[in-house]
Design brief:
It is elongated, with a radius of gyration of 18 Å. The N and C termini lie close together (11 Å). The chain is mainly alpha-helical. It contains 5 helices and no strands. It has helices at residues 2-30, 42-73, 79-111, 116-131, 136-143.
Length: 147
């Protein structure tokens, strides 16, 4: 079980590392004389809309889908197989939310004038921090493991 949590935690910290690197690179590349995509430009509107829709759809889908799957994983008798399924599901949940986080930051630096993308990134980061952070306690609770 400890090994499973460590593998999920790796993905979790990779996402946050990618977020920090994306923010630094985005800031450094747009710091001097950068002409952002105009917000009223059809490309800007499309990018913003895609990111907002992705965030609105992916977060509930990831959380609810993971919750439904944990009910199925509880029934698995073999602990090794149960932990493997849990690890795969938790990784998919992290990736679904993490993609929204990183994409919002990228598009924010492309547009540079729209604060709603920072809100999308903030929502995704909070969801990752509070609902997706891997711990042994959450795994025990999710899978109803008796020790």
């Amino acid at each position: 079980m400890e090994r499973t949590v460590k593998k999920i935690a790796q993905v979790y910290y990779y996402i946050y590392t990618a977020t920090i690197l994306t923010t630094i690179v985005g800031y450094m590349t747009t710091m001097d004389n950068y002409d952002p995509i105009p917000m009223n430009n059809p490309l800007g509107i499309a990018l913003k809309s895609i990111i907002i829709l992705y965030t609105i759809i992916s977060i509930p889908l990831a959380l609810a889908g993971f919750h439904r799957q944990t009910k199925k994983w509880r029934a698995i008798e073999d602990e090794r197989q149960k932990f493997k399924a849990y690890q795969k599901g938790a990784t998919i949940r992290l990736l679904l939310v993490g993609i929204g986080l990183i994409a919002s930051i990228i598009v924010f630096f492309l547009l540079r004038t729209d604060i709603s993308l920072i809100y999308c990134a903030g929502i995704s980061a909070i969801v990752l921090l509070f609902f997706c952070k891997p711990t042994e306690g959450k795994m025990i609770n999710d899978l109803k493991i008796e020790e």
